[in-house]
Design a protein that fits this description.
By secondary structure, this protein is an alpha+beta fold. The protein is about 35% helix and about 25% strand. The protein is built from 18 helices and 31 strands. The N and C termini lie far apart (about 75 Å).
């Protein structure tokens, strides 16, 4: 009979942890939260100092019944939920739901570990503790504040705009940031400027060098218009182009720091094209444990919700030893000073790193799905690179005198790859031009031609998921666990649409944002929300009493809601009309939204109740019948391309078809990444898209 019971959150962890512990331990899972505020009411008692009312979550009765049976058999119970304030709250709720605080004969402890490895789990059992009520109170406050905003304002949006809308303490601020950026873009006035380049030849050269106009002897000079350009060109007529200065130097590129939740989401978006939600889902699997050939079920990364870049001393030492063995001592970075932590659980978090650096991406590739592998590889490379020496470039910069003006050109060559032998950032490109090495001060260059080009300054870029996460973090809004669900919510509510990674505010989003700004200015105020995050952190550190925050927040919110209910006028949002004709009554069908996304409906409802699936059009003719190819989804949500004439035409493809024909066999070509592939697998012809663009 097991005398020890370990309760974790996710069932996926049970198998991983069970093999670390002996037969004297039983491991079971709560499946996340077991108690919550009731959905049917506000969930806290305003008349009795905001005391929360917790109930068992529907469907968790059987889970709790099983855990009670296991708890009765055990002498010692370890609550091993996730190492953050959400996990701390789940442990507290488990203790209350299982009445463990009333069982005097049993010892109940809280344990936590940053990684699911044998060493970490065993170590946590040696240092059990009591539940940190400061962290629990911080989570309770966050939950109650979110409930206050959501349950107070959302019904107002339902009544005044349309059903199914919502407001949120963080989501409404995120929406405002996107709307503010849209306003910046719309208000932007482009300014003209010109670039001027000189193509120059040195004696013995066959290929000209391209030097950029820099300015005059006073410094850098911008060319604002054609008139200024013509004046410069007039003064350049007949002048000699002389090498004035050649500087040889060195540029150092520092190794990146390990991933936090935010930087992992940003880099996965840029490098892998993953949404924040997808990144977190995959990271959760890597953290909880996957089956790896020769190792069984093991966790591959440390805890995924963190804003710390700290690395445990043991992991740091192991990484440096690995790098020295694999790449040589010259690649190992200088040892860093270890920061003392304050003893709080938040400070115990590490950066996101591999649990075992010796498990290289190549070793686990065959055991992981493509996307799991790509994310693990990104994390592994980033962490390994963080323990390596900087990359060093040899640089050459040249100043060229042309009359009263100066032109310049520069190049760099990688001299020591350092961390870049493992991890090359997306934006890093080598600019090598060996010809510059032959240039000397005083050398005369002959002018081949002067090239000028007109440009206009560009407005700020639309937010992407990656840049929005970065902006939220910089403003101090939300925390590692909130970024992905916040973005998912504003997309699901259709306040924002995503096209080619960019986030665009919709008409509905503009209406909701306007309502929030006018009626609830503090809720969507960036500084107010950031200060609230600071207060929540202060509660977790035991510096602020949680009910003080709630008492100061709710009355003003409640007053604003009552005022808005009286003064706010109803707003009508028209449905988007399509070219699709209703075959029953002949009207143009409109796009509606249901639990499973978009669908087409007749605007004549209730007289005409015709509906049909909505498929996103591609503008590509079907290779089989000539009708249009549309984007469809399988029952499991996987995207594919099919003919709009289905079931009369059975064309389907997992890759996007194109109008291109294979030059070898005549079959249609499909897009995959940056390549065009022949759809006939027996043919195997492929073409690089960039090559095609160049050829065209």
């Amino acid at each position: 009979m097991a005398k020890h019971l370990v309760i974790v959150e996710s069932p996926a962890k049970v198998k991983t942890i069970k093999k670390f512990l002996g037969t004297n331990y039983e491991v079971d899972a709560s499946g996340g939260h077991v108690r919550d505020l009731p959905k049917s009411q506000l969930g806290f008692d305003v008349e009795h100092d905001y005391e929360p009312k917790y109930i068992t979550i529907r469907g968790k009765g059987d889970v709790l019944a099983k855990l009670r049976k296991e708890a009765k058999k055990a002498d010692i119970i370890y609550l091993a939920t996730d190492p953050d304030r959400e996990g701390e709250a789940i442990s507290w709720h488990l203790m209350k739901a299982l009445k463990l605080d009333e069982a005097e004969s049993k010892k109940v402890y809280r344990i936590s570990f940053n990684e699911i490895t044998k060493t970490a789990v065993k170590l946590s059992l040696k240092s059990p503790r009591s539940i940190d009520m400061d962290l629990v109170d911080a989570q309770q406050t966050r939950r109650i504040l979110d409930r206050m905003v959501g349950y107070s304002i959302s019904p107002l949006l339902w009544a005044k705009v349309k059903r199914g809308l919502s407001a949120g303490r963080v989501q409404s601020v995120a929406l405002r940031m996107i709307c503010d950026r849209e306003e910046e873009i719309n208000a932007f006035i482009p300014e003209e400027y010109w670039n001027l380049e000189a193509e120059l030849l040195a004696e013995g050269m066959k290929k000209p060098l391209t030097a950029k106009f820099h300015g005059d002897q006073k410094g850098k000079l911008a060319i604002h218009n054609k008139k200024e350009l013509d004046q410069i060109l007039d003064k350049l007529k007949g002048v000699k182009y002389m090498v004035q200065e050649v500087k040889h130097g060195e540029r150092t590129k520092k190794a990146p720091i390990p991933f936090t939740t935010s930087t992992m989401q940003q880099e996965a978006s840029k490098a892998l094209n993953f949404s924040t939600q997808k990144t977190m889902r995959l990271a959760q699997q890597l953290y909880e444990g996957v089956d790896v050939k020769g190792h069984g079920t093991i966790a591959l990364i440390t805890y995924l919700r963190t804003d710390s870049t700290r690395v445990a001393q043991e992991a740091d030492t192991t990484a440096r030893e690995y790098i020295e063995n694999q790449y040589g001592k010259s690649y190992v970075s200088e040892a860093e000073a270890v920061k003392k932590n304050s003893g709080k659980i938040q400070d115990a978090h590490e950066a996101i790193r591999p649990t075992d650096i010796s498990l290289t991406p190549a070793q686990v590739k065959d055991s992981l799905s493509r996307d799991l592998f790509r994310l693990y590889q990104l994390i592994w490379k980033r962490f390994t690179a963080s323990r390596m020496k900087p990359a060093i470039y040899d640089t050459i910069s040249v100043k060229i005198k042309a009359g009263e003006y100066e032109f310049s050109l520069s190049t760099s060559k990688l001299a020591f790859d350092g961390f870049m032998s493992v991890y090359v950032p997306e934006e890093e490109k080598e600019e090598s031009n060996g010809v510059l090495e032959r240039l000397e001060s005083g050398m005369e260059l002959s002018l081949v031609t002067l090239n000028s080009s007109q440009h206009f300054t560009q407005p700020p870029a639309h937010y992407t998921e990656a840049s929005l996460v970065k902006a939220l973090e910089e403003q101090g809004i939300g925390r590692p666990s909130t970024y992905a669900p916040t973005i998912t919510t504003i997309l699901a509510r259709r306040y924002v649409a995503k096209e080619n990674k960019n986030l665009y505010v919709t008409e509905l989003g503009e209406v909701v944002n306007h309502i929030m700004k006018v009626n609830f200015p503090s809720i969507v105020d960036l500084k107010f929300t950031a200060n609230m995050e600071y207060l929540l952190d202060s509660i977790g550190e035991g510096e602020v009493e949680w009910k003080t925050v709630v008492r100061n927040f709710y009355p003003d919110l409640n007053e604003a809601v009552k005022k808005a209910e009286k003064e706010l006028e109803s707003v009508t949002i028209a449905d988007e009309v399509t070219d699709e004709i209703c075959e029953v009554c002949g009207r143009n069908m409109v796009i509606k939204y249901g639990p499973h996304g978009k669908f087409l409906a007749c605007p004549g409802f209730p007289d005409c109740k015709n509906t049909k699936p909505y498929f996103e059009k591609t503008g590509i003719p079907c290779p089989k019948c000539g009708k249009e190819v549309v984007i469809k989804k399988t029952k499991k949500g996987r995207k594919y391309f099919g003919c709009e004439a289905n079931p009369d035409c059975d064309f389907m493809s997992w890759q996007k078809p194109t109008t291109e024909k294979c030059p070898d066999c005549g079959s249609y070509m499909v897009e995959k990444g940056n390549k065009l592939l022949c759809s006939n697998e027996q043919c195997g012809y492929s073409m690089n898209l960039k090559t095609k663009e160049t050829n065209s």
